[in-house]
Write a structure and sequence with these properties.
By secondary structure, this protein is an alpha+beta fold. It has helices spanning 16-19, 22-35, 98-101, 142-156, 179-195, and strands at 39-46, 49-56, 62-64, 83-85, 108-116, 120-129. The chain contains five helices and six strands. A six-stranded antiparallel beta sheet has the order 3-2-1-6-5-4, covered by helices on one side.
Length: 204
Amino acid sequence: EKPSLSGGVMLPNSFRAVWESLAVRRVVEMTHEHYDFAACFLAIHAPGGMQLRQRYGLERTFVRNPPGGQSICFHHGRRCLPTVIYDAQADPRFSQDVLVMGVPHARLFVCAPIMLHGRHCCGSLCLADAQPRSEFGLDQCTALQKAAWEISQLVQSTGWTTVALGNKSLRLQSVEKNKAEIVSCAIDSIHKRSGSGNSSNNSK
């Protein structure tokens, strides 16, 4: 499987075991509960668009990239900072996006990149709400960023250790045999997060 995105990668289908694991589900679930937005989900790089997993407030499982562009879920650039779109409906880049025109009718849209080894994005952890909010700042993204980081650690714990751009393949180990370790690692992290409460960054 070859990386095919600028600054990002598409992971092979064998990583479905990670995206559907209890560990990742709990991280996304707790993020949804923390922010209480209309929708919270993972958007994973896939051929022609983004695969949507661990969805809350959304039934769609795939969004296709528009001609000559990218889905609103796609994280542009190589930086680890989240992207905040205050009103997607008023933004000509995204006003025709299926997640803006249809459920969850996103106005405020926030996505934190899932960065592997700090350099390569394989997707985003996304929040969407039907109300625009010009006051939503990066300081309110702390919990979202931490959750995205935790998911990246789960992916890396499967044994994916190197990224080779160009014509070289990614070096992978079996995901299935590491499921127990993935869950154990995430539950540990979740307990640490829940111990600090979930009100400090709640935007509602």
